[in-house]
Design a protein that fits this description.
Blueprint (H helix, E strand, L loop, with lengths): L14 H19 L10 E5 L5 H9 L4 E6 L2 H13 L6 E4 L12 E7 L9 H10 E12 L5 E3 L3 H17 L8 H8 L2 E12 L1 H15 L3 H8 L3 H13 L7 E12 L2
Parallel strand pairs: 1-2, 1-4, 2-3, 4-5
Antiparallel strand pairs: 5-8, 6-8, 7-8
C-alpha cells in the first residue's frame, strides 16, 4: 500500500508549524470551515488528516452535540491535537494515529467525514475516498474543502512572482496534487457517492483584507523556498524577488488577489 504523504511532507511538523495550523484554521473559520454547515443533532464526525486538531476544535466548540473523531499519520500531530482539544474543553474526542488509506474503524460508523487541505497532499485520492465511503453510515455525507492553487491570481502581474508560483505548483505536484479540487465531483462519483456537488467559492481580497491574506500565505509559502531550490533546482534570486513582490503587493494602490476554494459533498446511500 502506498503511503499517503511523501516522507518530506512540505510543511513539516515543527512546533512553529503546529501553531501556524491553528492560526490558519482561525483565518478560514467563518470564510470556509463553518460556511453552510449545520449539525443540529448528535452526530458522529470523522476528520481525515486532522493534524493538530485546529478544525476539530472549531467544529466541536461551534456544534457541541457533535461526537468527534480524527486521524492523522503523524503521532506528533495527534499529541498536539489532544492538548489543543483538551484546552478547549473537548475531552471526548477519539483521536487515532493512522493512514487514511486504511482507516482503523469498522464500516458504517460515521454520519460525516470531513476533510480540509488534505487531498492536495495525496497523489492518488481514490483509496482514501473509498475508505471514507466504507466508514460512513448509509445516508452519511462526505464534506471536502480544497484550494486549486492555479486559481490564485494577482494584480498587478510580475514575471518573478509567476516563476515562484510555478515552482510552488511543481513542488506540490512532487508530493501530491495541487489541482485536485477541480476533480472532486468526478472522484466522488467514481467512488460511489450520490447527490454529488462541487462548488467553487471565489475569494477576492483588497486593501486590509489583502494584507491579511498575503501575510497568511507568506507564513506557509516562505518555508518552502529551500525545497524549491534543493529539490527542483530553482533560481534562488528569482524566487526571493518573486516573494518580495508578493509581500509588498498590498502597497500597490490597485492591488488585489483572487482565489478559488472548492467545497465538495456527496452522500452514501
Amino acid at each position: 500500500m502506498n503511503k499517503i504523504f511523501n516522507s518530506d511532507y512540505i510543511h513539516g511538523y515543527t512546533t512553529a508549524e503546529q501553531d501556524r495550523l491553528i492560526r490558519q484554521a482561525d483565518y478560514w473559520k467563518e470564510k470556509l470551515i463553518l460556511r453552510n454547515l449545520e449539525f443540529n443533532e448528535e452526530k458522529h464526525l470523522l476528520e481525515i488528516g486532522c493534524g493538530v486538531g485546529a478544525v476539530l476544535g472549531i467544529l466541536g466548540t461551534t456544534f457541541p452535540n457533535l461526537q468527534l473523531s480524527g486521524i492523522d499519520l503523524q503521532p506528533k500531530q495527534i499529541e498536539c491535537a489532544s492538548r489543543h482539544l483538551e484546552q478547549l474543553g473537548l475531552l471526548n474526542t477519539n483521536l487515532k494515529v493512522g493512514n487514511i488509506q486504511q482507516l482503523p474503524w469498522d464500516k458504517n460508523q460515521f454520519d460525516y467525514v470531513y476533510g480540509i487541505w488534505i487531498l492536495e497532499h495525496i497523489q492518488d485520492p481514490i483509496e482514501p475516498l473509498q475508505e471514507a465511503y466504507r466508514v460512513l453510515k448509509p445516508g452519511g455525507k462526505i464534506i471536502l474543502n480544497e484550494t486549486d492553487l492555479m486559481t490564485l491570481l494577482l494584480y498587478p502581474h510580475s514575471p518573478d512572482y509567476q516563476y515562484l508560483q510555478q515552482a510552488l505548483w511543481d513542488l506540490l505536484a512532487q508530493h501530491g496534487n495541487p489541482y485536485i479540487a477541480r476533480r472532486f465531483g468526478a472522484l466522488l462519483e467514481k467512488t460511489g457517492f450520490e447527490y454529488v456537488t462541487n462548488t467553487p467559492w471565489a475569494f477576492h481580497f483588497r486593501k486590509q483584507e489583502l494584507r491579511k491574506f498575503i501575510d497568511y500565505v507568506d507564513e506557509w509559502l516562505t518555508p518552502t523556498l529551500p525545497q524549491m531550490i534543493e529539490q527542483l533546482g530553482k533560481d534562488s534570486f528569482r524566487l526571493e524577488t518573486g516573494l518580495d513582490f508578493f509581500r509588498n503587493l498590498p502597497n500597490h494602490p490597485e492591488a488585489s488577489a483572487t482565489l478559488v476554494v472548492y467545497r465538495a459533498e456527496g452522500r452514501k446511500l
